[in-house]
Amino acid sequence: MRLRFLASTSEAGACPSLYETDRGTIVVQGMHVTDPTTLSDLRDVLPGEAAVEVPRELLTEIARRVFDQSGAPTT
Length: 75
Hints:
It contains two helices and five strands; from the N terminus they run E-E-E-E-H-E-H. It has helices at 36-40, 56-70, and strands spanning 3-8, 17-21, 26-29, 31-32, 52-53. The longest helix has 15 residues, at 56-70.
């Protein structure tokens, strides 16, 4: 799998960040959630899956970019 950088809220371009893959998926780089109480709130976590936390602004920024490029929201 190859990654292409999409967006970050870090001025250094580090964590948290979003990447597009050559498989048509998105990779999210963020702080690993480790608090047991928080993890217990997650549903249907499969082996090998992890939860990461990213600022809301990162997701709204990438949504804005997608909207601006296509002229309409994508699903």
